[in-house]
């Protein structure tokens, strides 16, 4: 056990017992399917390294069946009154809340996050469905002023059509809900490919929709080799829109595929969140907020605060405070009540952390806490990494330019406003940015000058179902959630009547 990490205590809660894990299946055209000689892959518990189950991959025939169902069921779903579609989404939200305990446990054993975080995420998924249940009733058009007697001109909003959606593993409940909720709320059918690392979590959300009365064919859920599934779905003329959350390189590749068919895209891609901490703040208060935000979900959050720029007058105090807190952060199985940070989701992430930390060291960066894989309860098979603090890291280090997507806080000093704004905006990313100050004028300037789709000023809370979630620059385009999320699934039609 690393001296930088406080282990969680085994047996603190009944939650430490393993959660039930059902047989994994595809959901194609309203039917649960598996077997049939389909290729499978293991799903692994990141806390133990143990195999949870075998996930079937969709065949080309499965994908064609899902596409055909999406096309054939769309006219009926589109024609259903919005308030009737909303009833199904609201019922699904109620079922998610009723099943929160079991759904959250499945998300924890698949992804690694703490049970508290997984329960919060289940609640978010329910809220998202409720939001789109209501917002789908407000896909308003407008009547234009007449230009001639007897001529009426109207603008209407209509569902874009079948949507292909791709969700990552880091929020295995919330991400599927965002994509499904927007599509179904707008009157579109949807084919979802969740992450293969966390399939059962997404399927639990789907079960709630099915039990709420979702008609067959409106939604299909498939798994498989990402390149094969995405190419097959996006290349089909049936698909009218593509919604993706993931890395910048993969997002660019999917956009190229979508461009061949002039399909609309919503891309929520990577980030490298800057945090500006000015000299007029309550340092202890900002530290308490920052450490919890940084190590949430082991830093595997696209809007995670990562590059901390701290005014030079409080820099040393901030470094010491962050380091002390990181060393006392409890790492362990997410099902244990005392755990503050669970394992990383897969071994690729711990390997990436080692690479980033070693590279930062070679460029002169200082490791104040963490920087190593760790064992929990003497077990070496989990994908645990210590909460890490780097300081005085030059821009030549890879971690200052590439999204780490892990439990690493990077701390550097700054001296003046203009220089720190330039540093915050230096990278091609533009997803989330944060700043802390007591100056009202500075708050206004920060809101104007920080280049990001979402900005938290004196707060890390930047995502709720009624707000747009998305970035600018290479962090993508379009938004999920909010009225903007519904708009992404609608097309505009102008009609002249005489």
Tell me what the structure shows.
This protein is an alpha/beta fold and 498 residues long. The protein has 2 domains: 11-269 and 475-497, Aldehyde Dehydrogenase, Chain A, domain 1, CATH 3.40.605; 273-465, Aldehyde Dehydrogenase, Chain A, domain 2. It contains 14 helices and 22 strands. It has a 7-stranded mixed β-sheet, with helices on both faces. Strand 9 (190-193), helix 6 and strand 10 (219-221) form a beta-alpha-beta unit.
Secondary structure blueprint with pairings:
Elements: E1 6-7, E2 26-28, E3 31-33, E4 40-44, E5 51-56, H1 60-79, H2 82-98, H3 100-111, H4 115-135, E6 142-144, E7 152-159, E8 163-166, H5 174-186, E9 190-193, H6 199-211, E10 219-221, H7 226-235, E11 241-245, H8 248-260, E12 264-268, E13 273-277, H9 283-295, E14 305-311, H10 315-327, E15 330-331, H11 347-362, E16 366-369, E17 388-391, E18 408-414, H12 417-424, E19 432-436, H13 440-449, E20 454-457, E21 476-477, H14 482-487, E22 490-497
Parallel strand pairs: 1-15, 8-9, 8-11, 9-10, 11-12, 13-14, 13-19, 14-18, 17-18, 19-20
Antiparallel strand pairs: 2-3, 4-5, 6-7, 7-22, 12-21, 16-17
Helix pairs in contact: 2-4, 2-5, 2-6, 3-4, 3-6, 4-5, 7-8, 9-10
């Amino acid at each position: 056990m690393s001296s930088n990490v406080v282990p969680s205590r085994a047996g603190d809660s009944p939650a430490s017992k393993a959660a039930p894990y059902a047989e994994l299946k595809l959901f194609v055209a309203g039917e649960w399917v598996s077997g049939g000689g389909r290729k499978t892959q293991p799903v692994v518990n990141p806390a133990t390294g143990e195999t949870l189950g075998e996930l079937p991959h969709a065949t080309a025939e499965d994908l064609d069946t899902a596409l055909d169902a999406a096309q054939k069921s769309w006219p009926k779903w589109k024609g259903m009154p919005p308030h009737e579609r909303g009833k199904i989404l609201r019922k699904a939200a109620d079922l998610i809340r009723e099943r929160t305990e079991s759904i959250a446990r499945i998300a924890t054993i698949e992804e690694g996050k703490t049970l508290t975080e997984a329960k919060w995420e289940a609640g978010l998924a329910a809220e998202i469905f409720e939001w789109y249940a209501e917002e789908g009733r407000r896909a308003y058009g407008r009547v234009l002023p007449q230009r001639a007697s007897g001529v009426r001109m109207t603008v209407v909003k209509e569902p874009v059509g079948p949507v292909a959606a791709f969700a990552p593993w880091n929020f295995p409940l919330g991400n599927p809900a965002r994509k499904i909720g927007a599509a179904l709320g707008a009157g579109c059918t949807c084919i979802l490919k969740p992450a293969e690392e966390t399939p059962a979590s997404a399927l639990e959300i789907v079960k709630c929709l099915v039990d709420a009365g979702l008609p067959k064919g409106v939604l299909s859920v498939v798994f498989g080799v990402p390149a094969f599934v995405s190419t097959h779905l996006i290349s089909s003329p049936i698909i009218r829109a593509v919604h993706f959350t993931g890395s910048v390189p993969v997002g660019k590749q999917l956009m190229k595929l979508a461009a061949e068919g002039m399909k609309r895209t919503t891309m929520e891609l990577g980030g490298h969140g800057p945090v500006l901490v000015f000299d007029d703040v309550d340092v202890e208060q900002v530290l308490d907020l920052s450490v919890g935000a940084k190590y949430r979900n082991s830093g595997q959050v696209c809007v995670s605060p990562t590059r901390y720029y701290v005014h030079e007058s409080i820099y040393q105090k901030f470094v010491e405070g962050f380091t002390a807190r990181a060393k006392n952060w409890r790492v362990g199985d997410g099902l244990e009540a005392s755990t503050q940070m669970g394992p990383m989701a897969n071994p690729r992430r711990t390997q990436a952390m080692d690479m980033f930390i070693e590279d930062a060291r070679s460029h002169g960066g200082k490791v104040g806490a963490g920087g190593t894989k760790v064992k929990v309860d003497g077990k070496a098979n989990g994908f645990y990494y210590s909460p890490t603090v780097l300081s005085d890291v030059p821009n030549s280090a890879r971690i200052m330019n590439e999204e780490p997507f892990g439990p690493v806080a990077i701390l550097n000093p700054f001296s003046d406003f203009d220089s720190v704004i330039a540093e915050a905006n230096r990278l091609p990313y533009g997803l989330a940015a944060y700043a802390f100050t007591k100056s009202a004028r500075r708050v206004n300037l920060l809101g104007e000058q920080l280049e990001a789709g979402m900005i938290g000023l004196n707060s890390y809370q930047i995502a709720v179902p009624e707000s747009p979630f998305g970035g600018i620059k290479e962090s993508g385009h379009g938004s999920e959630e909010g009225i903007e999320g519904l708009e992404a699934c609608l097309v505009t039609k102008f009609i002249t009547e005489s």
